[in-house]
Design goal:
Radius of gyration: 20 Å
Helix content: 25-40%
Number of helices: 11
Order of helices and strands: EHEHEHEHEHEHEHHEEEEEEEHHHE
Structural class: alpha/beta
Largest sheet: 9 strands, mixed
Mean pLDDT: 94
Number of strands: 15
Strand order of the largest sheet: 14-13-12-11-7-10-9-8-15
Length: about 375
């Protein structure tokens, strides 16, 4: 069933999960767009969390049971902000009730799960989009424009780095596999993989070789260092002895077009903090977020980046994504984060995790 757009209307929205990403990113953005969205309810397994979020944002209803919420409130859009392991069941439930869905990253840890989720959405004529908000950073948008103009040529190699010197999330349950599904690679790596796959033209992964580790004793460096730069982080539940996920991931992805992606992702490491993506094309290379363009030895220049709002306002990427989602619902543009791109990212997450566990390269043909 094809998706049917509807313009110039206000959509009823329900948010599932009222932790930091909901209260600092999604709810502020949704409530600031009353001409587009009406947040009719929030849901969280914690009574205190659900009630607190509802009161904070003036939302009329709150629930601890998502199914009851769907049946009573009949939202048209569901925003999934739960711990990672609950993404798929809540996405499937929302689709069952006829909702379009925005889901926090990662949508799924396995290619098969992602295929099932997107297949269900398509069958029901509904939209499903991953919240890959770093795509809205001005450096990535400028790079995409340059690539789409053909000025970079075929990208045959890339390197993605997301290093926190000390930045294990100390709120929620990021550090417990039962809830998170994985550690730094799942939390931070999915952002870098998404950006790389998107900018490289969405090649199909062929094989992944990866290694994960947990070696450095926990050292608290403040909530901001671990990603809670807008506040709202509760560190009371974090106990280092509960951590059973990787803090460090390194590896390579070989794609079907023989392009290569090297990644290095960590929550804490004895090295400088760094977030960077280097793309190497036949005509030029690009370094992000520096915005440097490398051509011949005498013709280096920079991407034209004029709007720095993304870097000045915490979680501004979520605001951009939520506004963009409305444009898709209105029939004005396609989804910004395409299903095929998220499918490939989910495949890489699965391949890398399996590779790290089995200590060998794992091919895409082994999982599909």
């Amino acid at each position: 069933m094809a998706f049917s757009a509807s313009s110039n209307r206000i959509y009823r929205v329900a948010v599932i999960g009222t932790g930091m990403i909901a209260t600092c990113a999604h709810l502020p953005a949704l409530c600031d767009m009353p001409e587009k969205y009406e947040v009719c309810a929030v849901c969280d397994r914690s009574v205190e969390g659900a009630e607190k979020a509802a009161k904070q944002f003036g939302i009329p209803s709150w629930y601890t049971d998502a199914r009851e919420m769907f049946e009573r409130e009949k939202p048209e859009i569901a925003v999934i902000c739960t711990p990672n392991m609950f993404h798929k069941p809540y996405v499937m439930m929302a689709l069952e009730y006829g909702c379009h869905v925005l889901c926090e990253k990662p949508i799924a840890f396995s290619y098969a799960d992602a295929v099932e989720m997107y297949g269900t959405a398509e069958k029901n004529g509904l939209l499903l989009e991953a919240c890959q908000t770093l795509r809205f950073s001005p450096d990535r948008l400028a790079a995409k424009t340059l690539i789409d103009r053909g000025e970079v040529g075929e990208i045959y190699a890339a390197r993605a780095m997301y290093l926190r010197r000390r930045g294990i999330p100390t709120w929620g349950r990021f550090h417990i596999k039962e809830f998170s599904g994985g550690g730094a690679f799942i939390d931070l790596g999915v952002h870098m993989l998404d950006s790389a796959v998107w900018l490289m033209g969405n090649p199909t992964p062929r094989e992944v070789m990866a290694s994960f580790s947990k070696r450095i004793p926990f050292e608290f460096a403040g909530a901001e260092a671990s990603g809670a730069f807008a506040g709202g982080a509760d560190s009371s539940r974090f106990r280092p002895e509960d951590m059973d996920v990787e803090e460090f991931a390194i590896g390579t992805v070989r794609f079907e077009n023989d392009a290569m992606l090297e990644f290095n992702i960590t929550w804490q490491v004895n090295a400088p903090s760094e977030i960077s993506l280097r793309l190497m094309g036949e005509k030029c290379g690009i370094d992000l977020p520096a915005g440097k363009i490398y051509r011949s030895i005498d013709t280096d220049n920079e991407l034209k980046i004029t709007d720095n709002t993304f870097n000045e306002r915490p979680f501004y990427g979520h605001r951009c994504l939520i506004a963009d989602f409305y444009e898709t619902l209105s029939g004005k543009k396609p989804l910004f984060v395409l299903p095929s791109e998220t499918l490939h990212v989910s495949a890489i997450l699965e391949l890398a995790t399996r590779s790290a566990e089995e200590k060998r390269a794992v091919a895409f043909s082994e999982i599909w």
